[in-house]
């Protein structure tokens, strides 16, 4: 009787211990799950923070690159503008007109539709060449060809160029001025000095202008 009672008590104790152990294990498991969730939330939060930092850094980098690019383009623009101004200033400094000689019907009789240097122009061009060669500095000549308004614009532009070229060739061949020191340009009928409604006006417009520049 006492022996059976002892075994019963022992059995109850074992069951109680198992039950107790079962409760402890479940509680620990729940705590571990809670701690794991907390850790996972922390990791996710950290990843989100890191991702935000990466995104912010990329945005800031893009903005800095854009700003640097804009600054560089502005610098190039300013540099280009400064270079253009410098070139213009240099050209202006070198392009000072020393004097101008005009060959027109008033003095040399450029004939209608004519592109040959008239004999009357020889004395004027010889004197011009002598003065140029007598200078103690390098100069260059701009030779402009002009016409009246008879004919098409294209024709008159070609005629003005032929007249300017004839004067340049004379100055090179008979005046001894190097070809590389002379430049020709034709304005055709675009720059009249008199009205083209009269023969006298058209005669004045048929001209070649020689500018001597330093």
Keywords, separated by commas or semicolons:
disordered N terminus; alpha+beta; 214 residues; 4 strands; rod-shaped
Provide an overview of this structure.
The longest helix has 93 residues, at 2-94. The chain contains 4 helices and 4 strands. Residues 2-23 have low confidence and may be disordered. The radius of gyration is 50 Å and the shape is rod-shaped. The chain is of the alpha+beta class and 214 residues long. It has helices spanning 2-94, 121-134, 153-173, 199-205; strands spanning 97-104, 140-146, 182-188, 207-213. The termini are far apart. It has a 4-stranded mixed sheet. 18% of the residues are buried. Helix 3 links the parallel strand 2 and strand 3.
Shape: rod-shaped
Chain-averaged pLDDT: 76
Q: Count of DSSP E strands?
A: 4
Order of helices and strands: HEHEHEHE
Structural class: alpha+beta
Distance between the termini: 142 Å
Largest sheet: number of strands, sense, barrel closure: 4 strands, mixed
| Helical amount | 55-70%
Stretches where pLDDT falls below 50 for ≥5 residues? 2-23
Q: Radius of gyration over alpha carbons?
A: 50 Å
Report strand order across the widest sheet. 1-4-2-3
Question: Strand-residue fraction?
Answer: 5-15%
Number of helices: 4
